[in-house]
Give the backbone structure.
Amino acid sequence: MRISGRTRLCAVIGDPIEHSLSPCIHNAAFRHLGLDYVYVAFRVRIDELGEAISGMRALGIRGLNVTMPHKIRVIDYLDRLDENARNVGAVNTILNEDGILIGYDTDGVGALNSIRTVTEDLEGKKLVVLGAGGASRAISFTLASEVGELVILNRTVSRARELAERINRATERCVRWGELSRQTLKRELEDADILINATSVGMHPNSNETPVDKELLRADLTVFDLVYNPLETRLLREARNVGAKTIDGLTMLVHQGAVSFKIWTGIEPPVDLMMKAAREELKKRSE
Ligand code: ATR
C-alpha cells in the first residue's frame, strides 16, 4: 500500500477497538481495487467523542465507522442523518461530504444482504427476531419492510413491544412482539422461514448457551446469528446439524462494512474478497 499526499483516510472509532476486524476488511478492499485510501482504528473514550468528530472535520477524514459505545451519542455532533439512521436512532457510518457530516446506519442493509446470500426472495416470508436491543433495532427496521411478517421476541417483553410499536409507527407495518420463552418460540417458529438471533446469548464466554432449543429447529428454517465470537455459535451448529441454512455474524460484519465502503467511495465493494480477508484474519488470531 502506497501512502501519498492525496491518500484519503477512513477509520473506526470505539472503545475498546483494538480487536476490530474492520481495518483488515476495508484495507483489503482498497488494495484490491487500487484505491488511494487507508483505514485505521482510533480508540475514542466517551468524553472525547465531540473532539474526535471535530477532528474528523478538521482533518478531512472521509469516513468513519462508529461502534460501541458511541452509536447513539454521536448523532449530536452530525449535520444530517439519513432517514434510516433517524428511524433507528443510531449511526454506525459517517460520510464527510465537503465538511458536511452525514450519519447512516448500515446494519439493516447489511443484514438484508447477508440473508440474500442464502435466500433471494424475502417477499411473503415470516421472520422471527430474538432480542430488542441496539442490534435488533437496527436490523428490524429495515427487514420489517422486506418480509411478509416480522415477530420480535425478547426476554424483557416491554422492550420488544416498544420496538415493534416504534417500527409500526414509522413504517405502517404490523410487526408483532412477544416474550422470548420456549412456549412462544415453539408457536412462532412453527411456520417461520427465517430466525435471527440479535441477543447476546451464546457469545463468548457463554458459548455453551443457545436462545433456542434444538428441537425447535428445522431444515427449512434459515438461521442467522449476529454473534461472531465464536464464529459458529451453538445455535448455528445445531441448525447446521438439522440441515438448516446458516448465516454467521462475520457475514453480517462484512456486509454492513461493504455498505459503508460504498457510501464513502461510491464504488461497488468486493464483498467476497472482504469476507475472505476477515476469515483469514480471524483464523490467524485463533492460531
Ligand atoms: P445490543 O446493542 O448488542 O443489542 P443490548 O442493547 O444490551 O445490546 O441488547 C442485548 C439483547 O440481548 C437484549 O435484547 C437482551 O434482552 P433484555 O432486553 O431482556 O435485556 C438480550 N439478552 C441478553 N442476555 C440475555 C439472556 N441471558 N437471555 C435472553 N436475552 C438476553
Notes: The first helix runs from residue 22 to 33. The mean pLDDT is 97. The first strand starts at residue 8 and ends at 14.
